[in-house]
Amino acid sequence: MAILELMQINLLSPMVLAFGLGIIATLVHSDLKLPDELYTTLSIYLLLAIGLKGGIALAQTSLAAFWAPALATLLLGLIIPLVAYAIARRIGKLSVADAAALAAHYGSVSAVTFAAAQTFLDTIGIRYEGFMPALVAILEVPAIVIALLIAQMAGGQQGGDWREAVRELLTSKSILLLVGGMVIGWLAGPRGGKEVAPLFVDLFKGALTFFLLELGMVAARRFRDLPTAGLFLLGFAIIMPIINGILGVWFGHLAGLSLGGSTILGVLAASASYIAAPAAVRIALPQANPGFYLTAALGITFPFNLALGLPLYYTLATWITGGA
Amino acid sequence: MAILELMQINLLSPMVLAFGLGIIATLVHSDLKLPDELYTTLSIYLLLAIGLKGGIALAQTSLAAFWAPALATLLLGLIIPLVAYAIARRIGKLSVADAAALAAHYGSVSAVTFAAAQTFLDTIGIRYEGFMPALVAILEVPAIVIALLIAQMAGGQQGGDWREAVRELLTSKSILLLVGGMVIGWLAGPRGGKEVAPLFVDLFKGALTFFLLELGMVAARRFRDLPTAGLFLLGFAIIMPIINGILGVWFGHLAGLSLGGSTILGVLAASASYIAAPAAVRIALPQANPGFYLTAALGITFPFNLALGLPLYYTLATWITGGA
Amino acid sequence: MAILELMQINLLSPMVLAFGLGIIATLVHSDLKLPDELYTTLSIYLLLAIGLKGGIALAQTSLAAFWAPALATLLLGLIIPLVAYAIARRIGKLSVADAAALAAHYGSVSAVTFAAAQTFLDTIGIRYEGFMPALVAILEVPAIVIALLIAQMAGGQQGGDWREAVRELLTSKSILLLVGGMVIGWLAGPRGGKEVAPLFVDLFKGALTFFLLELGMVAARRFRDLPTAGLFLLGFAIIMPIINGILGVWFGHLAGLSLGGSTILGVLAASASYIAAPAAVRIALPQANPGFYLTAALGITFPFNLALGLPLYYTLATWITGGA
Amino acid sequence: MELTTVKLVTIIAEAVLEERLLHDLRQLGARGYTVGAVRGEGTRGVHASEWEGKSLRIETLVAPDVAERILQHLAATYFPHFAVIAYMADVQVVRGEKFRGKQ
Amino acid sequence: MELTTVKLVTIIAEAVLEERLLHDLRQLGARGYTVGAVRGEGTRGVHASEWEGKSLRIETLVAPDVAERILQHLAATYFPHFAVIAYMADVQVVRGEKFRGKQ
Amino acid sequence: MELTTVKLVTIIAEAVLEERLLHDLRQLGARGYTVGAVRGEGTRGVHASEWEGKSLRIETLVAPDVAERILQHLAATYFPHFAVIAYMADVQVVRGEKFRGKQ
Ligand SMILES: Nc1ncnc2c1ncn2[C@@H]1O[C@H](COP(=O)(O)O)[C@@H](O)[C@H]1O
Ligand SMILES: Nc1ncnc2c1ncn2[C@@H]1O[C@H](COP(=O)(O)O)[C@@H](O)[C@H]1O
Ligand SMILES: Nc1ncnc2c1ncn2[C@@H]1O[C@H](COP(=O)(O)O)[C@@H](O)[C@H]1O
Ligand code: NA
Ligand code: NA
Ligand code: NA
Q1: What is the pLDDT of residue B158?
Q2: Which of A217, A256, B223, C105 has an alpha carbon 20 to 30 Å from B287's alpha carbon atom?
Q3: Chains near C, with 3+ CB pairs < 8 A?
Q4: Closest by CA position to B105, among listed B231, B306, B285, B252
Q5: Residues F35-84: pLDDT tens digits?
Q6: Distance between CA A212 and CA A206 in Å, rounded?
Q7: Is this complex's ipTM strictly greater than 0.85?
Q8: B317 to chain E nearest CA, in Å?
Q9: Side-chain-facing half-sphere of B55: CA atoms under 13 Å
Q10: By the 8 A CB rule, do C64 and C129 touch?
Q11: Is residue F96 scored above 90 in pLDDT?
Q12: Which ligand 1 atom is nearest residue D82's CA?
């Protein structure tokens, strides 16, 4: 399929349209407001469902093919924050704390972008490896730790507590639910999985749509900070994901992933964390400006990846992998 | 089917029974209490689901047949508040503000009553036009604006801000979700719709049942104000919907709607708003007594329509349309 | 099947694994926290769904076979609190209030344990009578009343109000939803039931899994009180359910229940209430130590029954009923 | 603008007590109340509310004598066995009669 | 440590008023606010918020003159038709200028 | 009835700080606390809590010296980089020793 057709399929999917509706709701100052508890519930559900499905798939997969992609993912988690930090410091002239904060966000990963990528590939009928959720878990933490270490070494940390931040990272709800869900899925296997499939599989796309409605509203609230963010941040939040996406697809291909798997690793690399990273950065780098990293990750990169990135990284993957 | 049989089918549906259970829970002072956030979540879900289903249906329908019913609905939105206001002032001797408040509520529409009507027709196997949710959106706002204008002209508005109220109406969550859902459904079409159907279609009746449990509790809390409401309000809250229901069925028939479609337009006309109207009236007509309009709309008319109105308007529609 | 195989099936079910994940989340001090509103919503959903399914089953069952199991259940509700109280006073040397509080909890019943038992039997393909939810309702209240009466007579009640507690018990949300759901299911019958089945039947196991995640976290928070609870409580919380489980299976067999039905009555007898009983005891016996009865019921007995009790009582039932 | 000083009594209590506390407040002369949901920890160990939802934070504006009566009643009735604390402070309101009048 | 006394104004109001109240507070000189969700009962009967979610509990730390202006404005604008009450009290803060400075 | 005056310290803080603040309070001598969920706006711009759930409203009843120590500690540790405000006031309680005793 041509990229324009892919774009159209993606933009007209219920989940992207719901995200758009959320943006509109905020722009017209609607009184629509999803309860915080619904947001929390949906995010717990999505993480657990991603993990469960991955675990069930793992139970049916040979793990021989797993080590190379796992290593590739780990490497991405080390390289991306270094690149992102260097760009933010050199080109963006940001403070150590702000640059490290951006590095943490862009090195880590957004589980919802991952879910959207799965849904997109399902829609266009492209298969991918069952162990991809394990890669989400692998990519989530290292980049954040690297970024905090950079800040520590560069002296950008005052008042923060990076050990505490790392401890909280490893027990954070996204890791716990993702890894926990995978273990449950793996142990319960297809039979146990079938019992909970009506909730965790059948409803997944609908729940994602609902969640994106809320995320559209959250992202749009970030828009009002765009004017003060400056041109560098705008460029960074669009070009960085593209660079990372190419890196991810390429590493995935080298590690033997399929077309679908390479696309997803590209999406993972391109995505910016907005759950684990903000919490960790707030604790370890309190002097970094949240208006900065949240606006970039949630206000620019997330909508970009969701609307344009998915078909883009897939198209890149067809080129790089030769369509295999 | 005879009306008694229809009544029985309706009264023994899970949704009406759940409403009854909610009433009982309140009357026996049970500690059952649904979280506010669940109520909010369910109402967002129902509005979005109604819109989505309507939009998907629209995508498959010719719009040629749409303009006449749309016009008929708009006319209902102009006529009903005038009639309701006149009755409330002349016969009920209510103050300008209270009469205008009632006019706003009975001219507008209850989305849940609409959903119950769809479910009822589905159960007895009667088909209706796919664009009915669009009529819900068309009927929701005009009557409220008319009623506020009447109050403005009759000098019943003090301290209120009707311009503000109208602006908030147009961006209110019910309009946004209904219209937004329709646009999403229309753009995503049947293919996109199928992806989210397990959440937005399959669960609809169950969610409606859950919601009616809560609404039964809310309605029953209004019962304690019945003694102070007076005979006029009791009569108004039962006779006004019947008049409006006949008007709605008749207009629907004239506009070329099917038996099912005419029934639903009758139900829409008969129903009284309890989401959009109370919020707008509270802002624009603060001196109107909420104990009055909420008791009428939620404590009397809603239960009446749900339990007896649905089969009644359907039977009326078989007479008026000649069963076609 | 051998008991070890049954244990394995049970321990590897998604619901037991989710409970384990909840325990781990608390032990590693994860920031995972399910919203209170989700907990409330799920518990309302589960009670209503249990009732509904039971009611629909009742509508298709002859009630001739019902009176004997009902009577047996009522007898269990009278005997168990007396036994539990005597053990707690004589052997445990507990105060009147603490002993009566334990008697109330172990005489009453845990609806979630019941749901887990149903799910377990479904998984291993054992059928049970449709009216079992009615037995849950029958077993819930009497034991609590008996226990409060014992405390009243033994002078253990100071400042409490047992009449108030009993009134609140009879209108408590668990009774209301269970009995209300059964009446709805019975009146609506299989046709009405089919309409709401996607929510109340298909999603049941998934919702139970989600709920057990939360309950694992709650139970684990009770663990920190274990050291202060003492050896007696630990023994009581494991041996009492086994005694009660044997009694329940035996009574069920005598009353003519099937293998599955006897297993479930055993589970009901073995389970300890943690919704109705704590609320009633807190009001009627405020001087009883909640750290005591909550730790026993929720921190020890519930995990024990969920992980080991289900296959145990089933195995006992195969012996006692001769596998019929 | 004429300001009057009334007493603001704040009560933190476990949720099971809601109906009884509000009933007591009305009996003792309070003409209104506001309730919020909180959680907390004190010197007592576990309380029943810990796992069954939130605790209550009840505020009521009353005349000084009513405030004293409320504190006294709470101390006598609920402090021994329930997780309840209460405190009061002076606050200024515009229309004092709304809060101080007899019911 | 240097402590300054500022006024804490607390407003209980039905939820439909949120946007307008916060707008008014800013206009009258408040430089921040904190909002919680509550429910309650007073002398008025039903209010619209009763069935449509919670009421608001708004707190704002302001200079004494701003506090008086706020109470006066609320009494004039909202007390007649809306379920609104408000009260103020003295509190001590560490850095007074944050709350008292002009906007 | 014997009334004692103690200090009520109220802290509004972003949610990520919960564990640390409660730990600090206990260290500084508080023997209990009550936490509610709020949202708000101040002079600082965005804070992380804005999109990730609510902020905290922490109340603790303590002896005057403990109150001062708490305010001082918060001002030094959290005011520079975090969205935190705090204030204290006098309140009367029935049994003062519950709140004032050493831990
Ligand atoms: N010193 C305190 N400051 C604020 N709230 C307290 C304090 N002590 C107790 N509380 C509250 O009162 C409840 C019961 O306290 P206790 O009876 O001491 O366990 C706790 O859950 C807290 O919400
Ligand atoms: N005496 C009072 N103490 C505390 N809150 C009150 C009091 N009176 C009224 N309120 C609150 O203000 C709201 C409106 O009160 P009212 O206008 O009297 O109906 C109520 O819902 C309560 O939340
Ligand atoms: N003047 C004020 N009155 C009440 N709450 C305030 C005030 N200023 C700040 N806050 C609260 O403190 C939080 C942090 O404020 P700031 O650090 O000024 O952004 C806000 O989100 C508000 O909840
Ligand atoms: Na990334
Ligand atoms: Na109408
Ligand atoms: Na039992």
Answers
A1: 62
A2: B223
A3: A, B, D
A4: B285
A5: 999 999 888 765 544 555 689 999 999 999 999 999 999 999 999 888 89
A6: 10
A7: yes
A8: 33
A9: 29
A10: no
A11: no
A12: 17
- Rounded Cα gap, residues A111 and A43, in angstroms: 9
Span from the CA of A186 to the centroid of ligand 4 (angstroms): 26
Which residues, chain by chain, have CB under 5 Å from ion ligand 6? C 109, 271
| Burial track F31-70 (b if 16+ CB lie within 10 A, e otherwise) | bbbbbbbbbbbbebebbbbbbbbbbbbbbbbbbeebbbbb
Ranked by mean pLDDT, the top range of A58-67, E71-80, F89-98 is: E71-80
Is D33 within 8 Å of E41 (Cβ atoms)? Answer: yes
Residue whose C-alpha is closest to residue A47's, from A232, A175, A199, A230: A175
| Burial bucket for residue D20 (CB in 10 Å: 0-12, 13-18, 19+) | middle
Residue A79: per-residue pLDDT: 97
Q: Which residues pair with D37 in a beta bridge?
A: D56
Tally C-beta pairs within 8 A across E and F: 58
Cβ < 6 Å from ligand 3: which residues? E 30-34, 59-61, 99; F 12, 40-44, 55, 83, 85
- Does D53 sit within 8 Å of C36, measured CB to CB? yes
Q: Nearest CA of chain B to the CA of A33: how many Å? A: 8
Q: What is the DSSP string of C56-78?
A: HHHHTS-GGGGHHHHHHHHHHHH
CA of B272 to the centre of ligand 5 (A): 5
Instruction: Give chain F's radius of gyration (CA, Å).
Output: 14
Distance from CA of D41 to the nearest CA of F (A): 5
Ligand 6 centroid to Cα of residue C266, in Å, is: 9
CB contact under 8 A, B25 and C176: yes
Query: Which residues, including other chains, have CB under 8 Å from residue B218's CB and lie 6 or more apart?
Result: B22, B298, E51
Give strand pairing partners of D8. D61, D89
Over residues D24-46, the pLDDT tens digits come to 999 999 999 999 999 998 887 65
Interface A-B, measured as beta-carbon pairs within 8 A, has a size of: 84
What are the pLDDT digits (tens) for C107-122? Answer: 999 999 999 999 999 9
End-to-end Cα spacing for chain E: 25
Q: Tell me whether residues B32 and C176 touch, CB distance under 8 A.
A: yes
The DSSP code for E41 is E
**Which pLDDT score is estimated for B161?**
72
CA distance E66 to A220: 33
pLDDT-based confidence at residue E95 (cuts at 50, 70, 90) = confident
Residue A158: pLDDT above 80? no
For residue E70, give Cα distances in angstroms to A57, A186, C230, D34, E21: 61, 61, 58, 20, 10
Best mutation target, F6, F41, F44, F73, to test chain E (most E CBs within 10 A): F41
Element (H, E) at E75: helix E64-77
Q: Using the predicted structure, report yes or no on whether residue C236 has a pLDDT greater than 80.
A: yes
Q: Is B159 helix (H, G, I), strand (E, B) or coil?
A: coil
Residue F35 C-alpha to ligand 1 middle, in angstroms?
Answer: 10
Whether B105 contacts B281, CB under 8 Å: yes
Find the mean pLDDT for residues B26-44. Answer: 93
Q: What sections of A12-66 are H helices per DSSP? A: 14-27, 36-59
**CA–CA dist A148, A155 (Å, integer):** 10
Averaged pLDDT, B58-63: 79
Which residue type does C166 have?
V
Phi/psi at D37 (5° precision): -105, 130
CA distance C133 to chain D (A): 23
Q: In this structure, what are the phi and psi dihedrals at residue C24, rounded to the nearest 5 degrees?
A: -60, -45
CB B47 within 8 A of CB B204: no
Classify the C-alpha dihedral E79-E82-E88-E92 as positive or negative: negative
What is the model's pLDDT at position D103? 41
- Arithmetic mean of pLDDT, B291-312: 95
Residue type, F5: T
Using CB atoms, list chains with 3+ pairs below 8 Å to chain A: B, C, F
